[in-house]
Amino acid sequence: MADPTLAARNLAGLDELELPREPPRRRTSRAWSSTWPKLAAIVIAVGAWQLVVASHWRPDGILPGPGPVFSDLWRQMHTAVFYEEIGTTMRRAVVGFAAALVIGTVLGLAVSRVGALRSAVGSLITGLQTMPSIAWFPLAILLFAPSEGAILFVVVLGAAPAIANGLISGVDYVPALLLRAGRALGASGLRLYRHVVLPAALPAYVSGLKQGWAFAWRSLLAAELLVAIAHRPSLGLVLQHERNVNDSTGLLATMIVILALGIGVNALFNRVNTVIRQRWGVAGDGG
After folding, report:
1. How far are the Cα atoms of 85, 213, 226 from residue 239, in angstroms, in the given order?
2. Which residues are within 8 A (CB) of 152 and not within 5 positions of it... i.e. 6 or more apart?
3. HEC readout, 203-261
4. Burial class (CB in 10 A: 0-12, 13-18, 19+), 266
5. What is the pTM of this model?
6. What confidence tier does 1 reach under pLDDT thresholds 50, 70, 90?
7. 170-213, pLDDT tens digit by residue?
8. How many CB atoms lie within 10 A of CB 216?
9. Which of 73, 38, 67, 72 is nearest to 50 (CA)?
10. Within a 13 Å sphere around the CA of 234, how many CA atoms are in the beta-carbon half?
């Protein structure tokens, strides 16, 4: 039997031949072309922030300018508790997202393969995805009390439906031509899924993972705002403390850290997406 994976690679290669080829660019040129738009966006955002502060829309004690906030952030970066807060939050994010990844993938595969299961819970998964994370907190606290379990419960329920829906959508939109080619080459059942369906569904699955991470991150920060666990400093907990003591400067500095972490993880998913597009022959070496 011919190898379906080899056939899929040949098809991707044929698609790549139809794309206009760009001349290879130096690594520094590619890095600069992808960096300067981000730097320009940061400059514009900080400038707009400073303009709002300069308009005296709110007193400086309530809405400080970029200077005091970045100065406070620099001070925090030289303390050990700053990295302890980030470590606690990131550990919860990684553990919760890993659990959601397993649950969402198994659920997505089962629903995409079994018609009766899709009819039974397909709409329920979409309904769970649309539920606000805050709605799960009363149940989470009843089940687990204010604990790590309550936080992970909310994170998993926030991310798993998005991951499952991404995989289901990817399987649903596998081109019929690929399925016919796979069957003609002798693939069927699980072999068809392994060599044709799942590789073809990979881009939508990665999009589902990216969306799942966004839901997990939001759910986690909301959970940390509401569930305070003693002796475990976290970004959500310090955010709540700074609001309670009216420390606007520290609050904005912590928000910048949360935003930077979210952007960093999103960049990792974008890199994975670029590699997949290159392997499919729908993107050049520059992404």
Report:
1. 11, 21, 11
2. 92, 95, 96, 99
3. HHHHHHHHHHHHHHHHHHHHHHHHCCCCCCCCHHHHHHHHHHCCCHHHHHHHHHHHHHH
4. middle
5. 0.80
6. very low
7. 998 888 888 888 888 888 878 888 888 888 888 889 899 999 99
8. 30
9. 67
10. 22
Does residue 164 contact residue 104 with C-beta atoms inside 8 Å? yes
Burial (CB count <10 Å: 0-12, 13-18, 19+), residue 141 = middle
In angstroms, rounded to a whole number, what is the distance separating the alpha carbons of residues 106 and 242? 40
The secondary structure of 53-90 as a DSSP string is HHTTSS-TTTS--HHHHHHHHHHHTTSHHHHHHHHHHH
The pair of three-digit structure tokens given for residue 245, joined into one six-digit string: 């003591």
Helices (H) and strands (E) in the chain, counts: 12, 0
22 DSSP 8-state letter? P
Measured distance CA(108)–CA(167) in Å, rounded: 6
Whole-number Å distance between alpha carbons of 99 and 95? 6
Which residue type does 4 have? P
In whole angstroms, what is the distance from residue 246 CA to residue 144 CA?
A: 31
| Alpha-carbon gap, residue 119 to 259, rounded angstroms | 39
At 186 the three-state DSSP class reads coil
